[in-house]
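Data availability (excerpt). The following record was deposited with the supplementary files.
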Amino acid sequence: MLESSPAALAKRLGRLRAWLLDGAAMSRVSSLCNITNPEQQLKQSSLIASKILINTMHFSKIAISLGLLATAATAAPRSFEERSPIVVRDIVDLGVTPLGAGDLEKRDIIDLGVTNDGFDDLEKRGKSNYISSCGKNWMPIEDDKSKSHSGYRSAVEQYCYHVTHSQDGLPTVIGAGQKHAAIVKNGYYLKGDVPAAVDFEIHNKMKDGDHTPNQADCETYLMKMADSSSKCYGSKNKDTKGGTWQIGDNDVSYHALPNPNST
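Predicted structure:
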């Protein structure tokens, strides 16, 4: 493949020019030798010299033009030959898949809101941090995935998330003498595959001061009734009756009572 650099082009043009000039000069010199008249020889010599000069200038211009063209071509950006590679963004489409077994049944929460704390609470008050009482119905603690049945732990997690993540983005504040109540149902089951509805309440029995539930603490308190050392725990079937966890001396209490779902 021939070189295309300016130096190479100029070199080749120089050789071509020398060859052409050499041939032209030799031809004219040969014709000059055939002229015997001195005056005609002088005129012919001048004519040959002029033509050689003109040819030299002509080829010099061609060489300069081609050299500039080659330089420009070399300096110009090679937009077609050396274009930067284009980064392709891949899209991974996982498509449409069937709902899982656990998604077929919707878990509902019936929020009863914050109301004044009356004397007909779920369980009696305690005096310190302990389980003051247990519920009446046994509920498996863990989920039974083979049946798509959710257990006590899942109900606690759903309620505690709900009470600490309100739709308006504001925390749930339970004032003195107030309680928060909610029912978690659909997809939950008691012992014997009985559909369940778990009643949750948080009581603020303080004379003054608000109580704002925290998700981690809420789960800790309500899972006390599922602890293997608690009186509400069934070691044979690993289930619980739920119950009431009392915090402080008649301050705040957390309640979780599994019941048959009548709806």
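Summary of structural features: The chain has two domains: 6-75, 106-260.
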